[in-house]
Amino acid sequence: MREDSNTRRVIPVMVPMPANRPYSYAVPDGMRVEPGSILRVPLGPREVAGVAWDGDGEPVESRKLREIAQVFECPPLQAQMRRFIEWVAAYTLSPPGLVARMALRAPAAFDPEPLVEGLRLTAIRPDRMTAARERVLHYAADGQAWTRSGLAHAAGVSSTVVDGLLAQGVFERVELPPQPLVPLPDTEFSRPEFMPDQKLAAERLREKAGANAFSVTLLDGVTGSGKTEVYFEAVAAALDRGKQVLILLPEIALTQAFLDRFHDRFGAKPAEWHSDLAPRKRERVWRQVAEGQVRVVAGARSALFLPFRDLGLIVVDEEHDPAYKQEDRVFYNARDMSVVRGRLGNFPVVLASATPSLESRVNADQGRYERIVLSARFADAAMPELRAIDMRRSPPERGGFLSPVLIEAIGRTIERREQALLFLNRRGYAPLTLCRVCGHRFQCPNCSSWLVEHRFRRQLLCHHCGHNEPSPEACPECGTLDHLVPCGPGVERIAEEVDRHFPEARTIVLSSDLMGVKRLRLELEAIAAGEADIVVGTQLVAKGHNFPSMTLVGVVDADLGLANGDPRAAERTFQLLSQVTGRAGRSGKKSTGLLQTYQPEHPVMRALISGDAETFYEREIAERERAGLPPFGRLASIIVSAATRQEAEGYARALRRAAPAATEIDIFGPAEAPLALVAGRHRFRLLVQGTRRADIQTYFKRLLERAEKPRGSVRVQVDIDPQSFL
Ligand code: ADP
Ligand code: ZN
Fold it and tell me: Helicase ATP-binding domain: from which residue to which, for each copy (predicted)?
């Protein structure tokens, strides 16, 4: 290390580690670094990518001070994005380094994309002309540089023809910038004819998205009302302002049809961003988003951390969807953080849903968000007629799960050559296997949960930790053969029942564990093209798909989501079942939704059947307000886990004892978590509830400061605005 190190400039660098603040590094002489620059820095024995942060680095003893190794040739992370990272970190109580890490998830993209070799016409003419050469020259005559294969392809000749011309000097080699990933969207490409209420909504959204100002608009429209078409106008308005646009979708890997619709409107596809993207593609998206070549990204929640150069609009489609909550490392809700991003960047945000979250509804009711309502389906498509099947009065036959009423409806549907969807949010064959002789139940050795039988895979599988074992023939407890019975249904078992009743029908099971994303996409396309009569599926069939000939949706167990202690159970069930039944009748045919339930009088069932969502929302909102639950109060969970139950409980109790006194905040627990054991770790939960004004973050900071540091195998995870209470 150089002696004059105390005269070198020292800057803070955010490294992708669970560090609470940036680390200090020295800038070598002659190196140009600005806040946001993406850097290669030494960290312990390794080198990592970090981001130059703002202000001055904290003083460090000169012999400990290390130098920045390299500034990547990459657009710097914008100030807006750096503030966003700090905000998310402070709000979720996560180390900012871990949040920054989410913005740096494409290491190979920090170096520029390599130039591509291209060919350009010179003044030299070929020694002799052939028809093939003439065609090549015809295409190359536009003065543009071409790639060798691109030119050969355009001219319809083999590339040896091009090589021949190159050898004669007819072409010269030039370096071309890398191809854009997607062409530029054209906002005038194909504008739809809007119906009167759509037109009003579209105009209002255009106005909002055309302004350089923060606003949040809730686009609340029934399934099939044309929300997508309408918010595309907001996208167009932002693009016309020269801005980049982010569209968040809960299940982008499976909603390829969305990309086609975008193409129909804008003449080009958006760039996609999700975890199933090939690494090379991810890197190119990251880079071209940073450089501004990519104008529109359609992505999963993590797209919120892409390094946009000039973001001017975020649309969150299906804003109520629980998939927007990340529950891993940094616990954040991408819907809420989109609003924060819009506020920090001073640009509009659009939240779209047929069944808005209660949080967004209340924000709209209280005037913080503007609400635009589309209350009818597009064209003559009617909403499906929904009915409850009272399972107490029309029970399934012994060993079955489908009421005769539902079976009859399926029969009539497939006779008309239309499609039926049976929805059950349970993967596998049966959620529990039991020995009829000794009562033994198959449980996961690492988790407090039953093993789910997956008959296609001949396995018992734990849905929490992935533990699996071959399907047994004998009971491990009493050794009896052939007396194991599956209890309750999963989709595979429903498909088996359907097959018994309709052996001639083409039945397909769709469930994420049965096939990879590619195969799922193909299956979804095949279903949309009518290549199945009966579809049995988990929630992945519920999201955003358009199945034109689907006219019956049967919900196998409408009560399933109501039983747990989650404060959002009713809301969630209402949203999910509205969405599932909303798959029916989207192309104008008369359609039906049937809900198998043991509690047809439950407010959720009544709201679904009457179509009176308003009353349901009012009641739920009143209920939340009375209980001081979100959005009228604030919640946060602390999950303490450890290798032994004793350690977990001991530390959870210590945390409780360390809780500071606060007037607007209560702390409850610890209690053993409903999922008491996951992947071999014992879990205890504490719940913190505060008023709307309560400063939960400061409370937590004080709490964690006062408590002794966790030792041994103990881990503490804070979840602000928890969505899961398991
Ligand atoms: P939502 O997102 O509200 O469920 P979509 O935007 O998917 O509704 O619209 C439902 C269907 O109606 C789609 O096939 C869409 O292309 C069509 N549609 C909606 N509005 C129009 C319009 N104004 N012109 C043509 N087609 C439309
Ligand atoms: Zn397990």
Answer: 208-374
Q: Is 74 marked within a binding site?
A: no
How many separate domains does the chain show?
6
Q: What is the CATH number of the domain that holds 244?
A: 3.40.50.300
pLDDT score recorded for residue 544: 66
Rg (CA), the chain: 29
Domain span holding position 527: 381-426+490-622
Q: Is residue 484 located within the same domain as residue 497?
A: no
The pLDDT score that the predictor gives to residue 300 is 95
pLDDT in tens, 530-579: 999 999 999 888 876 788 899 999 999 999 988 777 889 999 999 999 99
Q: In angstroms, what is the span from residue 186 Cα to ligand 1's centroid?
A: 20
Query: Same domain, yes or no, for 617 and 703?
Result: no
Q: Which residues surround ligand 2, an ion (CB under 5 A)?
A: 444, 446-447, 462, 464-465, 467
Instruction: Indicate whether 63 pLDDT > 90.
Output: no
Question: Are 18 and 147 found together in one domain?
Answer: no
Q: Is residue 8 part of a domain?
A: yes
Separation between Cα atoms, residue 468 and residue 451, nearest integer Å: 8
Report the DSSP beta bridge partners of residue 715: 641
Residues 235 and 263 in one domain: yes
462 in a labelled binding site: yes
pLDDT in tens, 305-349: 999 999 999 999 999 999 999 998 999 999 999 999 999 999 999
Q: Whose CA is nearest to atom 21 of ligand 1?
A: 226
DSSP category for residue 474:
B
Q: How far apart are CA 651 and CA 714, in angstroms?
A: 8
**Which atom, in ligand 1's list, is nearest to the CA of 225?**
3
Q: What pLDDT does 77 receive? A: 96
- Most confident region among 54-68, 100-114, 375-389, 675-689 by mean pLDDT: 675-689
In ligand 1, the atom with minimum distance to the C-alpha of 261 is 16
Q: How far is the CA of 221 from the centre of ligand 1 (A)?
A: 11
Residue with the two structure tokens 């924060």: 340
665-669: long-range contacts at Cβ-Cβ below 8 A with a sequence spacing of 24 or more?
Answer: 665/689, 665/690, 665/691, 665/694, 665/696, 665/699, 666/690
Whole-model pTM? 0.90
Segment 643-667 mean pLDDT? 95
Q: Which of 60, 81, 104 is a domain's end point?
A: 104
Residue 415 domain-assigned? yes
447, 499: one domain: no
Mutate to test the pocket of ligand 1, among 227, 228, 373, 375 (most ligand atoms within 8 A of CB): 228
**Is 487 labelled as part of a ligand binding site?**
no
Nearest Cα residue to atom 20 of ligand 1: 226
Per-residue burial over 240-252, b if 16 or more Cβ lie within 10 Å, else e, is eeebbbbbbbbbb
Please determine, for residue 428, whether its predicted confidence score (pLDDT) is greater than 60: yes
Question: Which amino acid is located at 261 in the chain?
Answer: R
504: exposed, middle or buried (Cβ count in 10 Å: 0-12, 13-18, 19+): exposed
Which residues partner with 246 through β-bridges? Answer: 297, 314
Distance 544 CA to ligand 1 centre (A): 12
159 and 82 within one domain? no
What is the 541 CA–ligand 1 centroid distance (Å)? 18
> Both 556 and 608 in a single domain?
yes
pLDDT computed for residue 263 by the predictor? 97
Q: pLDDT tens across 80-136, in order?
A: 999 999 999 999 999 999 999 999 988 888 988 888 888 888 888 888 889 999 998
Q: Are 637 and 718 in contact (CB under 8 A)?
A: yes
517 & 601 share domain = yes
In a domain, 183, yes or no: no
Query: Which atom of ligand 1 is nearest to 198's Cα?
Result: 23
Residue nearest to ligand 1 atom 25, measured at CA: 192
CATH of the domain at 646: 3.30.70.600
The CATH number given to whatever domain includes residue 48 is: 3.40.1440.60
Nearest ligand by distance to the CA of 255: 1
